[in-house]
Structures are given as C-alpha cells and as structure tokens.
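Hi V.,

You were right to ask for the full record rather than a summary. Here it is.
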Amino acid sequence: MSENPYPAARLTRDLAALVLVDHQVGLLLGVHDHDQEQLRRNVIALARVAQAYQLPVVITTSADDGPNGVLLPELAQVLPDASVIRRPGEIDAFDNEQFAAAVQATGRDQLIIAGISTDVCVTFAALSAVAAGYQTHAVLDASGTWNALASHAAAARMQGAGVVLNSTVAVAAELQRDWRHAGGQELAGLYAQHAIPFYGSLISYVVPAAEPACRADPSAGV
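Predicted structure:
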C-alpha cells in the first residue's frame, strides 16, 4: 500500500492492545530466521511495555499440551493477569470464537501482534485483524519462523494487505512519543535490559559523565 497514515493514525496508549500468538517453548526452538534469544528478549520487552502503559493483552497458545510446548514462562510471570486462550486446533487465531471475543472485549482498535510462526500464526491473525477493521501492526523482531525466505514472504503478504510492519523498539517509542512523558525513564530501562542491550552501556557511560557537571552546577541535572 502506498498510503501512509502516520502520524494521524500512530499508535497510542489509549487505543492499542497487545496480541501474542503461540510464543511457546517448543515452537521457539524451531525459529531460525533470526536469533532465538533476541526474539525472547523482544517478546518480554513488549510484555513489559504493555504492562507499563496499561495496554490490554490477549495471549493465545496452540496445542500447548503437546510438542508446541507451554507458554514462555517469562510471559506468564510478567503478565499473570492476561487472558490466555488455549486454541484446540484453529490455525488462524481469529477462527477461535473465544479469542476473537477477547480481542473485541479490549475495546481497542489498534492491535500490536507478534508470534510464532511469522508466516502462519502471525500472518493469518494479522490479515484477519485487518479484515475485521483493526489497525494492525506486526512486530517482526518479536516473531519468528523456520527460515528467512518464509519470513520475507510473510512480510510482503502482510504489507500488501495493509498490515504495518514494525519492530519492538519502534512500537515502544511510538507509544511513548516523548521521552518527557510518563514512562520515559522506564522505557530506557526496558531498552537496556531487553530489546537493545547496548543501550545499557550507553546509559552507564552517560550517567557518570554527567555527575561531575551536576556537582559543579547543581542546576545541570534539572
């Protein structure tokens, strides 16, 4: 699509909800289009962003009593109160009536979607979300699949249908909008701890460098 709805339709804390599809321990082992540990960190970052900004979260799993494995334990720890829809067989999560109802019940019309696999579970859910009228963002670096070719094909298909392709850091920044708004300091910590670890090194360098100036001029840190 050539249409660019930004900034009029950018993500906001009041309109967005997070949807996590099949982030399960067994499926994570099959991700080979990018680093599994990076994917895990990004998913946890998204969960913590949702928690910090009080976004509704809907989580779904597929056959979690079989080889797909259970939900990533870290997600359960970060989001203990999130709705978890256990799909018995539906591949497109929106084919599950309980899931579709849970998403609708959030009352939000912007969906931030990530999952495993990118080319199946994320793509089908994102396409159905667009068809249902949701403004849909697919977070590619918090999703994964079996090979890079499948990931590229999925991205092209979603983008052609009107899904916004996005990243963990960009989603968080779009929701934050201004570092001076509430949550800015917490977001910097999330970046450093999860999504972009180098940011921790940057912070540790900048803070000590600023301290002498603050001691010399007490107003420097205000």
